[in-house]
Amino acid sequence: MLGPTDYAVWFLGFGLEVFVVVYSLFRRQFIRYLTLNLYMMAAALATCAHFYFVQHYGFSSMAYRYLYYYSDALLTILLYFSVFGLYQHVFGEMRASQYIRTASLMLLVGTACVSFMIVRESQNHLTSRFVVQLSQNLYFVGLVLIYILWGAVMKLRETRTRVIQLVLALGIYFSAYSATYALRNLFPDLVLARSILPPLVGTWLPFAWAFTLWRIPEEARLQTAQLVATTAR
Amino acid sequence: MILAVIILVISLALLLQFFVSYCRLQIAAGRRVELSESAREATGIQDQGVSGDEFLRLRRLVELCPETNGDTYKLGAIHAYHAFLGVVRLLFGPVMPAAAAWATAERAGCSYYAAVALDARISQTRRIYETDFLSMQ
Prior knowledge:
The structure holds two protein chains of two kinds. Chain A is mainly alpha-helical. Chain A is 81% helix and 0% strand. In chain A, helix 4 (97-119) packs antiparallel against helix 5 (126-155), helix 5 (126-155) runs antiparallel to helix 6 (161-186) and helix 6 packs antiparallel against helix 7 (191-215). Chain A is globular, with a radius of gyration of 18 Å. Chain B is mainly alpha-helical. Chain B has one domain (2-136). Helix content of chain B is 79%, strand content 0%. Chain B is built from five helices and no strands. Chain B has helices at 2-31, 37-43, 55-63, 71-92, 97-136. The chains are: A mainly alpha, B mainly alpha. At the A-B interface, helix 5, helix 6 and helix 8 of A face helix 1 of B.
């Protein structure tokens, strides 16, 4: 059963997702951050579908549960394209982006295969176990991809504040979700991992992106070189 | 089971690293800003050498001024980072002096960041006072 706080977090997340898309359209930045906006549109649509299923079938129903996990897995795959989009931003001036895209897609297919092999033994609960395992692995692969991207941001001395904040927001999102799913895998009945963390982490990404697009001007710059220098000292 | 434990540990470690990176970038950006005379008078800071223990006092001063460009969230993150550094210094100080020295330097950066935020808020408040309040009279 969902309480007022759950609905408040839900509507806040939906509002922020819509805000990112509308603000990008309004400021004519939709194409510049195309993959991010497409993800936000898909996330908003998924939120609408979740709401419809909760109203018609109930929060505890199997129909909602399957919709939740499968839409989450699909959204994660879509989020990979946002990561590729950020790779394009960072490696825009180099000719390496095509190789990175190919490698990332191969990694995605590989993750799905490994996840399937891991749960192949538990045939009786294949679908439900598979999606939890797949989500955990997908988020972890996303985390690895974003960590590599973060390394590139530091190595290439990326200075665009927006790109840096978008990458960091994704890093926090992927690591928090990956940890949450790992906790769920370890402790299936843990309330923190089942009911409290997922909506909060889910709201983080639209919040961070909305904040970045709204408050950080395109021309703002940060000195990552200075951070590298202080680390090396 | 083992895979989940490994993923959990790595995810938490990287979560911490992303958070620390974000805070260090903000502090590095703050260090590039020179404090104005009015901010130096208000805070009693002479140069960039401000103690990490000053952070809470500076944060309270910042809260006395109206918010500027949504800096509350950033200050909240820096506050959490400052607390984290306090834990690092406490836990690793006796066994790893280098870690304690690093935490002390970073805490000083947190304090300077709060002073820069205070400076921005004082400037913004003065601007509002000059443009809105004085023009009404």
